[in-house]
From TrEMBL, chains A, B:
The protein's role, per its UniProt record: Aspartyl-tRNA synthetase with relaxed tRNA specificity since it is able to aspartylate not only its cognate tRNA(Asp) but also tRNA(Asn). Reaction proceeds in two steps: L-aspartate is first activated by ATP to form Asp-AMP and then transferred to the acceptor end of tRNA(Asp/Asn).
Gene: aspS_1
Family: Belongs to the class-II aminoacyl-tRNA synthetase family. Type 2 subfamily.
Enzymatic reactions: tRNA(Asx) + L-aspartate + ATP = L-aspartyl-tRNA(Asx) + AMP + diphosphate
Assembly behavior: Homodimer.
Protein's cellular compartments: Cytoplasm
Domain Aminoacyl-transfer RNA synthetases class-II family profile: 142-434
Protein name: Aspartate--tRNA(Asp/Asn) ligase
Amino acid sequence: MQRILSTALPAHIGETVRLAGWVHRRRSLKSVAFLILRDAAGLAQVVVSEQAARARLEELPEETTVRVVGTVTANPSAPGGVEVTSPVIEALGDPAEPPPFDLYRPDLNVSLPVLLDHAPVALRHPKLAAVHRVGAAAVAGFRTALEEMSFVEIHTPKIVGTATESGANVFELDYFGRPAYLAQSPQLYKQIMVGVFERVYEVGPVFRAEPSDTARHLASYTSLDAEMGFVDDHRDVVAACHATVGGMLAAIRDLAGPSLDLLGVTMPALPREPLVVHFSDVLEMIGTATGQDVSAEPDLAPAHERWLGEWALREHGSDFVFVEGYPTAHRAFYTHPDPARPGYSRAIDLIFRGLELVSGGQRLHRYGDYVRALTARGESDLSAYAGYLDAMRHGMPPHGGFAFGLERFLARLLDVPNIRQVTLFPRDLHRLSP
Amino acid sequence: MQRILSTALPAHIGETVRLAGWVHRRRSLKSVAFLILRDAAGLAQVVVSEQAARARLEELPEETTVRVVGTVTANPSAPGGVEVTSPVIEALGDPAEPPPFDLYRPDLNVSLPVLLDHAPVALRHPKLAAVHRVGAAAVAGFRTALEEMSFVEIHTPKIVGTATESGANVFELDYFGRPAYLAQSPQLYKQIMVGVFERVYEVGPVFRAEPSDTARHLASYTSLDAEMGFVDDHRDVVAACHATVGGMLAAIRDLAGPSLDLLGVTMPALPREPLVVHFSDVLEMIGTATGQDVSAEPDLAPAHERWLGEWALREHGSDFVFVEGYPTAHRAFYTHPDPARPGYSRAIDLIFRGLELVSGGQRLHRYGDYVRALTARGESDLSAYAGYLDAMRHGMPPHGGFAFGLERFLARLLDVPNIRQVTLFPRDLHRLSP
């Protein structure tokens, strides 16, 4: 007999079926006992009335894996309107040791350290599993949206010979007796690959030796990266990013509906056309609204991003707002300046519900500009950038791209305060296991 | 005017269009010059007859990025039956420095070290780019096949606290002042995640400090991993792996047809039902065929795998053959023994054209079995496996899975002798850049 999933039960009323899963919960009443079985699809109620079967159920603690063969019976008062009766229950392994918390309660009310220490079992809680189903749907949507725009998937090195993007916050490793580093981002490689495919994307781990212990930072996270050639300016990047975020939200709705319901998620509002404001206009609006003089600020402080998020929702009904034109001096060396406004750049950020989610923009593409930009930032030895500069020297189109962390997106979408709550097995200053 | 790609030209005969791309090649004849433009889709022939335009083209070396506005004109003798006439050509950057090899020749006849040293530019050669388009299609097919079977995508840690899978060949890094290691595979984590989603998959980098300098080994490669719960035995894993490989081949045909044509690839034959032979039967067949006594061999030597590959093609018309039942002692500690045949296991390999591609099988799932297996292999401190053993202790179903390297699959598919030829930016004993 082929196994069916719990959600398929209503289609089999009156039939004998085979289920398999975990003992989610047992409830023993006077005349009957209930086994709530959990499988990948959901929960099934199994009614155990025969004495010998009740005795056997006593010996199968929560989380034991079992196979159940029984009759599907309609019962309007059962969850989902069906239950399994006259079951034969067979353990698929040894009786499980019960977890240190009750996975069957609606919420896993344990502290974050306890949750993370016991992640291999805690993640089985339906609400925690739902978080990662939403994550998987988000990544699927990221890929689909970019594939539809002819982006090609790439896999770039995670071990690099030089710590190019920033000297600090980089993990060093012993590479066959010489030093090497974990890549902080695929930035330089994805730009190189624009020379090959014009449009590329990558989903992969990035590594930051973050010495700060905050709710927003991890030592490793899943970076969603895209880069595209032959752009007119950063507005082409804004359009691609906007379409990508739209595709992610659509995929989450399509693929993770039950998880959204379980988590009670309010899906964010994304307008049809991207909402874009210039950095200097943001500062002016904030100055006018708050009476503070912020006109000399080189970047948006978290409070400014929050203000802007509220403004975007209030004035434009949008949970997303792009900021363009950040001052060049405060962005990475490869940032393309705005030729029309000295000091300002073609860098963009996407603010999602008042928090910076995406960073990107148009990049420099002329070899000479790179040499000047790197030299101006005090890089004396350009050989560290050899392969990257080769790509520029041998002809690169105007290009740009964007990147963001999957976990940060999930935390904001699900309104979770600590990024560790939406990361499978987080790595930080203190945590290296499980 | 919206840019169009070179492959769209035949649909625009008589119209003025805008193209953009790289100067792939210039050919100057007496009365006319040709610019072959390369973009993401292919090549376009641009006819330059006006004197001033010819002079300007002289100043745009190969690989310079340009924009071309001109008229699409039918010409049966032009490649694709169309060319662009009366062009206005505008450089999008500075004149490129010509690469150290001719990207416009049908094949890039350079040594492997030269190719790898200059990968940022060499990868632009249409045949090298085609390799990685096939790779992207293969990965897309891997995901689609598994999603259709309800596998959920996961992202597991690449930095781990203990070198559990094998003490040797592991990269050590400085993790905030204490030692940590790069994950050699997502094996333990994907098994843990079977407890959450039943079926999971991951596409991501794995790291092996391979001290050997061979054509088959890399220090890092892209691992395609899947793991599934509630299996009856390893044959369920064989079926899922077979379906996945079938999905990959279909996706390659569907998504990378032009690249296959360019590379002249003979697509492999995959039978409808998986071809499976037992390890002991393989040895017996080889003994009979060769007259050698191989009955005591603990594993298949490369020569045996080649023999088996030829046998599968000759006798069954298949480029793929699964081997089941490898001796338990020579497989990883988590390997499930075959209860019916002491000494043999439920481990599988998939041999693709005479080379081991996939490893997998059914795993142990009882906590007690893990403690015994690890202890028997001399592991004195099981705390290194704490999270993994927690998952087993708290109830795991019978499960199994498989894994293989994207690059090894590509090398075999494309009949390329060295795996570095199908890796974007390979990492090995000697190479850490570009």
